[in-house]
Structure formats: structure tokens, C-alpha cells
Design brief:
- The protein has 493 residues and is an alpha/beta fold.
- It folds into 2 domains: 2-237, P-loop containing nucleotide triphosphate hydrolases (Rossmann fold), CATH 3.40.50; 259-492, 3-Layer(aba) Sandwich (Rossmann fold), CATH 3.40.50.
- 51% of the residues lie in helices and 12% in strands.
- The chain has 20 helices and 10 strands.
- It is globular.
Amino acid sequence: MLEKIDLGVTIDKETYRLEKERLTLRLGELQRTLHDMGIPVLMLFEGWDAAGKGTLINELLMPMDPRTFRVHNFKKQESEDEIFRPFLWRYWTKTPEKGQIAIFNRSYYSDLVYRKSLDALNLRGLMNQANEFEQTLSDDGMIIFKFFIHISKKEQKKRFTKLLENDATSWRVTPRDKKENKHYDKLYEKVNRGLEQTDNDCAPWIIIEGEQKDYALIKVLSVLEKRLEKAIEDVKTATEIELKPLIHEGDKPFQSKILDGIVLDQTISEEDYQAEIKDCQKKLRLLQYELYRERIPLIVGFEGWDAGGKGGCIKRLTRNLDPRGYTVYPTASPSDIERKHHYLWRFWRDIPKNGHLGVWDRTWYGRVMVEPIEGFCTQAEFDRSYREINEFEKQLADWGAIVMKFWLQIDQDEQLRRFTGREENPDKEWKITDEDWRNRDKWGVYKIAVDEMLLKTSTVHAPWIIVEAQNKYFARIKVLKETIAAVETRLNK
């Protein structure tokens, strides 16, 4: 891409003055419209050191309302907290909410270009993750701009020299910057290849000729004007979609019926349970320390029918663990802030550090069960959810996490017995709600959704484990033993 760029382009002072005045006023108007329409915008500024990224960002922000944008400066060297999280964690958590603008000064692209420890295979994998990240956000309605500010090796050296000559600015030129200029030609090839591999329809790279700063600014502002105008017009003319239930009883009569094949008569005596549970919990405590020492993260998600025993299994799973090394996340309906983000945002936000355990009581699978049944998502959102979830879990696995997903299976008679028992027990009646009874009436619809979910999202790197939960003792022991087996398998590799 870069080899075709003419860095000698310029703009005269009068044209610059007139265009800057017009464009800054127009961008202020567009920003207010974006905010009112709830359209999120993500801008990435990349480029050579001393190319002028900071100056461009400052000029861009002058006419904007500071209440509706955030600038995030990402250093080449990650913090310890970021190093211990997945590659995209620090970027997912900074994505803007609807109606807001986020500006990344450097991004995941710099991570890929400057990270020396990556071999070709891992680099390709992370490039794919970056493309998946952008596609997921774009599908959700985010407008993504990626600017690469390009200058020549000679121009970069000239700017470094000027900075070094002034005591007030010499600190800005680091040994790493000098090294970049020295090896510019070699790095150029890596940069150019990376731009080509991450240039896509939803988030194309815009190369900005940065040798004349006036020209660079006007080009950035002009690109923003045209694309934002089109995005706003597309939203205005889009047909409003009425949210409605997407799954109904009787849908997919020839669907694979996974749950029908589960035998629920497995039991264990209370005496055997008490003996086994203590052994399992002791073993898991020791394995927890091994996970921490080896810096292996463990992600455990629980799904299942209401009253299926998720809480009881989680309580026994974590009872003997070191509380400094695990967190349990109960997933409720999204808050107002969470609704303004992509549905995966709140789960990315809570990903534990490597060596730690994260347990979710209900998970991101609400998007393919509750939401399509209750009419909380569109058909397009539902259709792409399986791909998005599989990509999310694959990214966690590629990071090094053990990803476990338990579905707790009971039959309708057992659920009724547990519901009734809760209503009759003053200590447990808080566990039963009108919504539980309402969901029970939709058992057949939920079964269709669950069968499809299990089929489409049980993968090599994140398989579903179906737990026969009719007998609570059996379910708890199975969860513990499956977790122990998964951890031991990883540690023995």
C-alpha cells in the first residue's frame, strides 16, 4: 500500500484556511448528530514516530464537544495488568458506547508491528483477531476509521533532529525512536504487509501523507466528513426493525435434539458424595496454585434450566479455593451502560488475569437463548451471534485460557418440584420469581434454542459439558471432576 503513496502532495495556505474553517464547523455539527442518533465511532491513529499523530488528534478535537469523546493513548509497552490479559482486552474495554467517539492514539496494530516475540503463525493469528474485532464492532453499528500517517525516513530523521535541538522537546525522542529510524527500511516492509492484511471493507486503512502537516489535517477532516455524512444518511434511511420473538414452538421440526439423548437417572449417595466432594476440593485447591504458577487462566461458564443447580455447583467448585485467585460473576439483565455497548463488552471487561479463575453464573449465551426468545435482538444480530461467540472463545483459548462450559440438565418434573420447594421454604423463596414461572411455560421454545446453541457452539477449544443435574450430588461431583480433569490435562501437556 505505502509504495504507491506520493509524499510530495501539498495544499496552499488560503485553501487550507478556508477548508479548515468549513470542515471544523461541519464536524462539530456531525458530532452532535452522531450523539443524538446513538451512533458510536472509533478512530485509530497509527503511523511512524514523529509523523504528527498527536497534532492531528489535537486539531481534530478542537471543534468537538469534550463530553462526547475520549482519547486513549496506548503505549508500545503494555502495563503489567494488560500483559496478563488477552491481546484485545485493553482495546475491547475502551470501545465507545453508542453516541460517543473513542480515539486510539496507537492501537492493536502497533502491538503487532512492534512485538518481536511473534513468529509468523502467531502474527497471522493475531491479525485475524484484529479483523474479527473490527467486523464484530462494525456489524453492531460502529463506524471505524483507521488512519496511518506516513512520512519518509529522511523526514522522520529531520523531525527527530529538530526535537533534539530543543531542550524542551528533546525528551520526546527515545532510543527506541532512533532505532526505528535506523531500521526504517526493514520495518517498512513489516508495516506495509500488516496494513495489507488488516485492510477490510468495514474498516479500511486511510493512508495520510504526513510530510506537509496542513495537507494531512485537511485530508483527515475531509475523510471524516464524507464517511460520517454517509453513515448518518444510511441510519436515517434504514427501515426501522420491530423487535419480536425469533424462536417459536414447532420451529425446526427436524433439528438435532441433543437434550433428548441425555439420561438423567445418575445418582450418588450422600455418604459417597461427602467423601468425594472433600477429595475433589482439596485437589482443586492444589491445582489452583499450579495454574497460578504456570500463569494459565481458567474460564468457567454455567448455563442451565432455572433451578438446575448452577449456584450450588459454583458454591462447591469455589468453596475451598484461595479467594484471591477467583471471581464469580452473576450475569443479570444488562444495565443501561452495558446496553450502550456491544453485548460482549461486559464479558471482556471482566476477563480475569492469567493464572486466575473467572466463573460466570449465566454467560454471554443469553444472546442466543433469552434475547431471541423474548424479542430483545434483531434477526441479523441473532444470526451472527454464533460466529461472534465462537470467535470470542477461540481468542480466549489462543490466549492460553482453559475454557469450560457447563449445561445443567433437569427435566420439567424436577424443575416443578424445586420451584414448589422454594416457594414453601422461607429461606429459599427469594430464589423463585414470576419470571421463573413465565420461562417455565416456554420450556419447549427454550429447548429449541438450547439444542441449537449446543450444536453450533461446542468446539474443540471450548466444548459444552452437559451435566445430568437431576441429582444435585451427582451434578456437583461431575462439575468438580470435569474441571480437575481439564486442568490436569493442560498442566500435563
